[in-house]
Amino acid sequence: MNLQYALELAGTFVFAISGALAVQDREHDLFGAGFTGFITAIGGGSLRDILLGAYPLVWIGNVNFLYAIFAGIVTTFLFFRFVAKLRRTLFFFDTLGIGFFTILGVEKALGLGFRPEIAAIMGMFSAVMGGVIRDTLTNEIPILFRKEIYASACLAGAVVYLALNHWGMERDYNLLLSISIIITIRLLAVKYKLSLPGLGQHPKRNG
Amino acid sequence: MNLQYALELAGTFVFAISGALAVQDREHDLFGAGFTGFITAIGGGSLRDILLGAYPLVWIGNVNFLYAIFAGIVTTFLFFRFVAKLRRTLFFFDTLGIGFFTILGVEKALGLGFRPEIAAIMGMFSAVMGGVIRDTLTNEIPILFRKEIYASACLAGAVVYLALNHWGMERDYNLLLSISIIITIRLLAVKYKLSLPGLGQHPKRNG
Amino acid sequence: MNLQYALELAGTFVFAISGALAVQDREHDLFGAGFTGFITAIGGGSLRDILLGAYPLVWIGNVNFLYAIFAGIVTTFLFFRFVAKLRRTLFFFDTLGIGFFTILGVEKALGLGFRPEIAAIMGMFSAVMGGVIRDTLTNEIPILFRKEIYASACLAGAVVYLALNHWGMERDYNLLLSISIIITIRLLAVKYKLSLPGLGQHPKRNG
């Protein structure tokens, strides 16, 4: 459990950095960048817990998450030039975080007694809604609608976890497997520019 | 009550279709369209219940609403060309749904012991906020601000329901009457392009 | 306490006016302007209370806040030309309101037993998130990201209040002092066009 807690804090730290970096090209000041990092890091889990009525929200009940976010924002400020060069590394850790938070969200909803269908949606929301809120606030079409096979990778991993859980697979193996599925789908989709078709279109490859 | 429940599921189905269709012209994939249908269908009722603290949210407590949404999304995907041609029919059912969910929202808030002023706002929110959230996510000026006499029709119907309820009209008649008022105002407004005036303007007809 | 309650209602009235005025230049009808005034006035406090799970929300539990909002909207409609000329006066009262609601938000969170770190964030959210939601709905980059030293002034005042509270300063003096700090920072920032630097930039003066 200590490993899981450390990973949660680390994932929150990475989400805060990627959120703060998201506004570097626009007319945002440091405060706006920090605020965006904060929203990105807490948005998904907060929305999940508000929808489920699961109080207190994680970062409100445990102030260490707030410190992880603060550390991420300060790191971005102090080492901006260095961090901005690490985009590929950050993308990789961001993808790890998305997979990890999806399955944690599924487990939280299941643990509170909600049905698997609800748990799958809550897992996906945990991972992607922080970014959706960030993009909405900064007036962009949310990444979820632009970069295909992003939220859908999370949903696929959540469904796999729920199925294997239902069939009795041990939790640790299931966690590793379903997170790996999310990460693999996401990395393959980005590498090969895979995308789902739109309404009234045939499947295509971008570019 | 069974008729009401069936109508609620049917209204949710229609809202999901109209939400999914809303993104057909943009760079959305199937997942984005489904996600938008989902948000449109659950947004208004979820916001109402979160504001009231009425847990569990309807679709989280009763998974049949999730299935109604899923059916609406799959229907849109499979029969896209057919559904897209039914715009007038869909608009009619959407208008029915807006009237119906307004009054159900009013009744829910009243039933939980909230004041009529709050119930009127919650009724309007139930009907229109799904569309507002949808438009905000897809980076449009919400329909509520563009298409006049839309949310205001819901508010008018809610006030009529509350007044007649206060004066003792039987529930079934009141339901039918106040829903009809919402639908009539909305259809007349669209047919004759009626609109409310803006700030510092005189009343006008559009176009 | 009666003075504080009167100030809360007055602040809500002013926020509703500034919200309704915010949409005068666009294609909004009276209803859209009223809706925007409503959202601006309730948004920050509602978000704070939803995040904290502090039910009922202020305006839902006490209908007088609804009447204060309604009065602000009607005032804007009836005396639009007059009110629109009062921009400087409104800006001043809006700034007063932001300072006041920041510290009230801090006190509410503290009173509910939350940690100071959470209370500081909740104070800032109370004051600024109504405007952020308003700007997001009307498809603008939120003022928080554009006009520097706005939310950060609130955060600074909240931290000062918490520090002085921790060191035992009497509540009334602390309230006046920390609100004055927020107002002073905000007014100086606007007068001298002060701003925080952006990521990878040096501190600068705008314009």
TrEMBL record, chains A, B, C:
Name of the protein described by the UniProt record: Trimeric intracellular cation channel family protein
Family stated for the protein in its record: Belongs to the UPF0126 family.
InterPro entries xrefs: Gly_transporter
Location in the cell: Cell membrane
TM region(s), chain numbering: 6-23, 30-47, 59-83, 90-106, 149-167, 173-189
Organism annotation: Negadavirga shengliensis
Membrane topology according to the record: Multi-pass membrane protein
Glycine transporter domain span: 6-79, 92-165
